[in-house]
Model the fold of this input.
Amino acid sequence: MSQQLPTLEEIRRAPKVLLHDHLDGGLRPGTIVDLARETGYDGLPTTDPDALRTWFREASDSGSLERYLETFDHTVGVMQTREALVRVAAECAEDLAADGVVYAEVRYAPEQHTERGLSLEEVIEAVLEGFRIGSEGRGIKVGTLLTAMRHQARSMEIAELAVRYRDVGVAGFDIAGAEAGYPPTRHLDAFEYLQRENAHFTIHAGEAFGLPSIWQAIQWCGADRLGHGVRIIDDIAVSGDGEPKLGRLAAYVRDKRIPLEMCPTSNLQTGAAPSIAEHPIGLLRRLSFRVTVNTDNRLMSGTTVSEEFAKLVEAFGYDWDDLQWFTVNAMKSAFLPFDDRLALINGVIKPGFARLKWQA
Done:
C-alpha cells in the first residue's frame, strides 16, 4: 500500500530542527509596528501590519537587491533597544516552537544593534534573555550564532564574544554579507582563533558567489558548515543520461559530510535557484550530501520550516522518511554536544516521526 505524502498540517506536528535563521529576518509585522512607535522609528512604508507583511514579501520578491536590503533596514531599525531585542527574540522562540521546531540556531550580527548606545555585550545578553523567556515550557531549545559582517573589520571582536558566551547560550559564530569582493579569507585571524579555542562556526558561502567562495570557506577558513552552499552544484556535471559526476570540491564536501544549510524559498528570491522543482537540493539529496532545510528569513520569504518541507514534498514527492532524513542531518550538524544531539535524535525526532508515519 502506497503511503500518502505528508500534508502541511501533518508536517507542522513533526519535530523539526532549524540551523539557518536570521533574527532580524523573522519579526512579526505587528511587532515591527509596535517597536517603531515605541522607539520613534519613522521609516516604515506603512503602519498597517497586514499591509506591512505584504510589503516585505513583495520587496523581497522584486528581484531588486536594493529593495531586498531595504527590508532589513526596517527590521534592524526597530531592534536598537534592550526591550526590543528581548521581545523579538522571545517571539522568535515562540513562533518556532509553534511550528514544531525542537532545536534552532538563530543568528544575528550584534554590531548592527548598537545605534542607540547598547554595547555588544548588552545586545548579546538581551537576545539570550529573550530566547530564555520565549523557550520556557515550549519544548524548544534555541542557541544563537553571533554573526560578523564581511565588509566590516570586527570579526575578531565578535569571535571573542562567541567564545566568551558559549557556555550560556551562544552556540557558535557566523560570517555574512556580500560574498563578491569580500572573501572569508579577509577574516582568517578570527577563524584561526575560533579553531584554537575549539569553537564552532559556519560561513555564508556559495549563495551569491560560486565555487571559490565555498573552497575558501572550507579549505582556508575551516568552516564546520556552509551557509547555503547551493553553488556546490556547479561542481557536479550531469550527463545526457542523467548520470552525475562529482568534481573534486563537491566530492570533498560530500565525503567529509560538510553540512549544507539550504534555504529553498530564499534561494529563489536571491536568484540562486530558478524554482523549487529545479532547486539543487533534489540532486544533492539523491547523492546523499549532508543537506539540511532552513528558512533564512521567515518574514521576507513568508515561510516556516514546515512550509519549506511542504514545498519540497510537492516538488520532489518526499515522504516521511525523507523529511526525517533532513531533520536528522540537521540535528547531527548542530553546534551542540554529542550527547545532547543524540538525545534529541533518539528521544524526540525519531519517535515523533514514527508516530506520524503510523498515523498516516
In short: The domain at 8-27+79-359 is CATH 3.20.20.140 (TIM Barrel). The chain is about 50% helix and 15% strand. The CA atoms of residues 208 and 281 lie 16 Å apart. The longest strand covers residues 141-149.
